[in-house]
Automatic annotation (TrEMBL):
Its EC number is 2.7.4.16. This is Thiamine-monophosphate kinase. It is an enzyme of class 2 (transferase). InterPro entries: PurM-like_C_dom, PurM-like_C_sf, PurM-like_N, PurM-like_N_sf, ThiL-like. NCBIfam families: thiL. Pfam families: AIRS, AIRS_C. Mg(2+) 2 binds at residues 48, 76. It comes from the Bacteria. It comes from Mycoavidus cysteinexigens. The keyword Magnesium applies.
Length: 330
């Protein structure tokens, strides 16, 4: 069995890389890390916790889990238009085994290296499997995208495609079936989400408001309209879906795209005169960007979000996002 300091030294100490990361004076190995934000920039900080049995199955591939643990945090930086700089890791393990820690750290650091994001500290302890990461990024002063800046008349956009991660979760829960040839693609959507860092950085010049879709479009977009004190209309048929999800009954498609979580795409609002620039950005990034609705004036007599179907009738099915305190497993 490995000791706490064996775990840190063998799998999570990379001080030789930290010294060459911009803005980091001191990383792993002391009581605190030391960061120096660049002149004219603000620190963007976010924390996410992944708990076995709540956010992932305990037998999830550790390499993919290492990737996802960091990816979901980097997605928050992407939503603000920030550049990743560093992260901390607090890790509780039922047992410290190299067979699990080696692939976990490999998945974690492969993504960290992709974005030059250095591990600068954290904590390890025995306990139920629990991963808690805090990320630090930089964004030009006053340029961060927030949830509170949507303007009446803005288009609502989403990146990528929605619903495949929830489709995969439904298969694992035996809620529905999927052809074996389709499973690898939706499994990857669930276990290997891609943070949209480059998109977020580009949107600081184009978008008004943004957030990442971690708990489902219905729940997350509600946060944006409430913070911005506006209403919204969403065209349900415009929601981008994969060919795999389109094979499913319409009710499953709508559930996965509207209420399913774990997409980690960006939802953002931008003025209509930005459409050409956003289309060009879509081509430059090779990432689908889909206009799905409009920001409308606040009207307390109306639903905050009207989900409109192809015949312009409102969707009557109650919608909600993922609730971390709801009594269900991952």
């Amino acid at each position: 069995m490995l000791t706490e300091f064996d775990v840190i030294e063998r799998f999570f100490t990379r001080s030789h890389l930290t010294r060459h990361t911009p803005g980091i004076t001191l990383g792993v190995g002391d009581d605190c890390a030391l960061l120096n934000p660049a002149l004219g920039y603000q620190l963007a900080i976010s924390t996410d916790m992944l708990v076995a049995g709540r956010h992932f199955f305990a037998d999830t591939d550790p390499r993919g889990l290492g990737h996802k643990a960091l990816a979901v945090n980097l997605s928050d930086l992407a939503a603000m238009g920030a550049t990743p700089r560093a992260f901390t890791l607090a890790l509780a393990l039922p047992e410290a085994h190299a067979q699990w820690l080696a692939p976990f750290s490999e998945g974690l650091f492969a993504l960290a290296d992709e974005y030059d994001c250095a591990l600068i500290g954290g904590d390890t302890t025995a306990g139920p499997l629990n991963l808690c990461l805090t990320v630090f990024g930089e964004v030009k002063h006053g340029r961060a995208l927030t949830r509170a800046a949507a303007c009446v008349g803005d288009d609502i956009w989403v990146s990528g495609r929605l619903g495949d991660a929830r489709l995969a979760l439904g298969v694992l829960r035996q809620e529905w079936a999927l052809a074996s040839d389709d499973w690898p693609a939706v499994q990857r959507a669930l276990e290997w989400p891609q943070p949209r860092i480059q998109l977020g950085q580009a949107l600081t010049d184009l978008a008004h408001a943004a957030l990442d879709l971690s708990d489902g479009l219905a729940g997350d977009l509600m946060h944006l309209v409430k913070r911005s004190k506006v209403n919204a209309v969403v065209e349900v048929e415009q929601l981008p879906r994969s060919a795999i999800l389109k094979k499913q009954p319409l009710a499953i498609q709508q559930h996965c795209t509207l209420s399913g979580g774990d997409d980690y795409e960006l939802c953002f609002t931008a003025p209509p005169n930005a459409r050409a620039a956003i289309t060009a950005l879509e081509k430059n990034l090779g990432l689908p960007l889909t206009r799905i609705g409009t920001i409308t004036p606040f009207d307390p007599s109306q639903a905050p979000i009207i989900w409109r179907t192809a015949n312009h009738a409102p969707l009557l099915t109650p919608l909600r996002g993922f609730d971390h305190f709801a009594p269900h497993a991952p």
